Amino acid sequence: MKNTITENNRMKGHTAALVTILIWGTTFISTKVLLNDFQPVEILFFRFVLGFTALLIVRPRILKGTDLRQELAFAAAGLCGVCLYYLMENIALTYTMASNVGVIVSAAPLFTAIMSQIFLAQEEKLKGRFFIGFAVSMAGIALISFNGSALELNPVGDVLALLAAFVWACYSILTRKISEYGYDTILTTRRIFFYGILLMVPALFLFDFRFGPERFADPAALMNLLFLGLGASALCFVTWNSAVKYLGAVRTSVYIYMVPVITVVTSFLILHEPFTWMTAAGTVLTMAGLFLSQKKDRR
């Protein structure tokens, strides 16, 4: 009976992670549309405010019974996963190529794996296949991202992208810890959003934020904001946190390898961008690395 329950939870975790990545991999289309009228920090702020509102409507109860240590964990998760990660990634894109950022940020699972061995005693010990899978996936992601173009290093942008990957690993570790508190996942995600939005406010003044309500009258802008707020934020952060709860921080984080693959497939189907042999080879390598990293020992 115990094995059945464990297997059911594992399947729930893999399903939640897959749903999350399928949506996150398509958000670039909505972001591209919104960047015509919105600054990156404006998109970020509006999407998480929408996400927080949606979670409040879905679960109007208040999260009670937390202590100071737990509140600090929620605040740290909000700072890392909602505020710093997206700000660093967006700023990095202004200094270096998008392909560089895509490859470097995909290194988040490696940071997560290393940190989990230090801070999470309940996580599985890493096997050699995890690192082999990481190398294979990164090779595939590099093929997808660069696709024949030359590698151009930019210290400022590349370091910011690397810090973004590290910050996301911190978020994964924190959500794993938060899952042990036993609270409702929607309530804990909403609390994380609250702190993330609160800590984001100082950045709004640095990046010349404006409300601009007339922009919301555009149906395309409104629909894409709703997709990012309700789908990519409210739904996906709940499903991602659920996946971390069931699978652990490391096994969930390797699904990040799939983001470039989903992005390429979506751009081919929707934007009719070319699908080259390097893209195909990169997709195969990335998926092979993902499955290799997820593979468990047979007893």
From TrEMBL:
Main location, first listed in the record: membrane
State whether keyword Transmembrane applies: yes
For this UniProt entry, which segments traverse the membrane?
16-35, 41-58, 70-88, 100-121, 128-147, 153-171, 192-209, 221-240, 252-271, 277-293
Keyword Cytoplasm assigned: no
The superkingdom of the source organism is: Bacteria
Name its cellular compartments: Cell membrane
- Please name the InterPro entries in this protein's record: AA-Vitamin_Transporters (IPR050638), EamA_dom (IPR000620), EmrE-like (IPR037185)
Note the topology in the membrane: Multi-pass membrane protein
> Which keywords describe this protein according to UniProt?
Cell membrane, Membrane, Transmembrane, Transmembrane helix
Q: Which residues form the EamA domain?
A: 12-145, 157-292
**Which Pfam families is this protein grouped with?**
EamA
The protein's matches in PANTHER family, at most eight in alphabetical order, are given as:
INNER MEMBRANE TRANSPORTER, S-ADENOSYLMETHIONINE_S-ADENOSYLHOMOCYSTEINE TRANSPORTER
Could you say which protein family the record assigns here?
A: Belongs to the EamA transporter family.
| Record-given protein name | DMT family transporter
Species the sequence originates in: Ruminococcus turbiniformis
